[in-house]
Design brief:
5-stranded mixed sheet; 10 helices
């Protein structure tokens, strides 16, 4: 039988993401956050009390121990509240498998699956910035000859020799400074050239890397465009073939429709189907989780004396009724989603099975157990108002073979199924 195709997988992932967003919004309701805040505050209060006990004097120990017990009790009650709310949400989702799809139009406009490429920005814009010019190295200051002051008066007669020595020393020092200055000037020229050469090499490397990265980015953009073009051509072919009513196109479309049918995490299903063009009949099998995969906890409670969280179990009847009701809802939901989505009426009848894969306790081997075996004609089924039906009675009206006890893995009787 056919399984999920390419476009169906895209649609399925989209619906799963949408469901997760809706779930996040539901969990943002005030009661949930109040419970979380209460748990956090109680936990912090408990920790504070424990820390205070360790530091407190004996005279205050009893009071602080009492406060710690009260804080711990509040923390446990908040945890219980949160767990029970989560449990209620799980059961509400399972109990409303049919109602949750009735407000949704199951028709899929295939043009909405067309891929429009939005290219990401170039991720190496850092390479578009030129390497900065090297920091300017200033010229060294040229030394200036500073001559001693010539003597005057009697000093000009008696100090000639000393002045001559000072003059010679000043000239010699100036020549030394000039030599050093010329050396520094040559070094500055060399450093400037080295910095210029280094910058040129770095700039060349930048430009080479930028060219490579732009080629890589252009190739990735081209690949995205090409992939989108291929997918859109496939979509055009699907739309065209569906217009002609080809078998493969019908099966692909039904795959997309059923991929839109997102079930709760605690009740995941798998669809297998095959379309027979000679009879315009869709043979559909829906695999549901086994009864052991469905929670059987009624509620959580905190036992103060034992300081532990325990749970109470649903009665056998409650578990059986919930699981049986879910099976019946899945059957009607499957009929509804396919017939409603098929606006052109290409599928005239649906032959349906709802069952589960389980381990046969007699053989220890994997086996399939059918719970509902039914068939429905399009016009007959679409006349039903599913918002007001009792699923078990609707299946009886369709002449379905229904398990007397799906929770105990009792199979439906395959014989005598009539078509409505």
């Amino acid at each position: 039988m056919a399984r999920r195709g390419f476009f169906a997988e895209l649609q399925h992932q989209s619906r799963v993401a949408a469901r997760e967003r809706e779930r996040a919004e539901r969990e943002a309701v005030q009661r949930h956050y109040a419970a979380v805040r209460q748990a956090e505050e109680a936990k912090k209060a408990s920790e504070r009390a424990q820390n205070q006990i360790a530091k407190a004097a004996d005279s205050e120990r009893k009071r602080l121990e009492k406060e710690a017990r009260e804080a711990h009790l509040a923390e446990m009650e908040a945890v219980i509240l949160e767990r029970n709310e989560k449990l209620e949400q799980i059961y509400a989702e399972i109990d409303s498998l049919l109602a949750s799809t009735l407000a949704v139009d199951d028709y899929v406009d295939l043009n909405t699956l067309r891929i429009e490429v939005t290219q990401p920005p170039f991720d190496r814009t850092d390479l578009e910035v030129p390497i900065p010019q090297p920091t300017h190295i200033p010229d060294p200051i040229k030394p200036v000859l500073v001559l001693p002051t010539p003597p005057s008066g009697l000093a000009s007669f008696f100090g000639k020799k000393k002045y001559a020595e000072a003059l010679a020393n000043a000239q010699w020092a100036h020549e030394q400074a000039l030599n050093e200055w010329h050396s520094v000037c040559r070094d500055v020229v060399t450093r400037r050239q080295n910095a210029k050469d280094t910058r040129a090499r770095d700039e060349e490397r930048r430009l080479d890397t930028l060219r490579v990265e732009r080629e890589r980015y252009a190739q990735e953009c081209a690949e995205r465009e090409s992939e989108a073009a291929v997918n859109n051509r496939r979509l055009d072919e699907l739309i065209t073939n569906l217009g002609y009513g080809t078998t493969d196109a019908i099966q692909e479309y039904i795959s997309i429709v059923l991929s839109n049918s997102v079930y709760p995490d605690q009740f995941q299903v798998i669809h297998e189907f095959e379309f027979d063009p000679s009879t315009a009949e869709l043979r559909l099998r829906v695999l549901v989780p086994g009864p052991c995969d469905i929670p059987a906890i009624k509620s959580y409670k905190y036992t103060k004396a034992a300081d532990e969280i325990t749970s109470t179990t649903l009665s056998q009847k409650e578990c059986r009724d919930r699981y049986t009701g879910a099976i019946h809802q899945v059957a009607l939901r499957s009929f509804h989603e396919v017939f409603e989505s098929d606006r052109r009426g290409l599928i005239k009848t649906i032959s349906l099975e709802v069952g589960t894969n389980t381990i046969d306790p007699a053989t220890g081997q994997q086996t399939y157990v059918p719970f509902v075996i039914a068939a429905a004609e399009r016009e007959t089924f679409l006349a039903f108002d599913l918002s007001a039906v009792v699923p078990a009675l609707t299946l009886a009206r369709l002449g379905a073979a229904v398990s007397k006890n799906p929770y105990s893995l009792v199979a439906a009787d395959r014989s005598g199924v009539r078509r409505s």
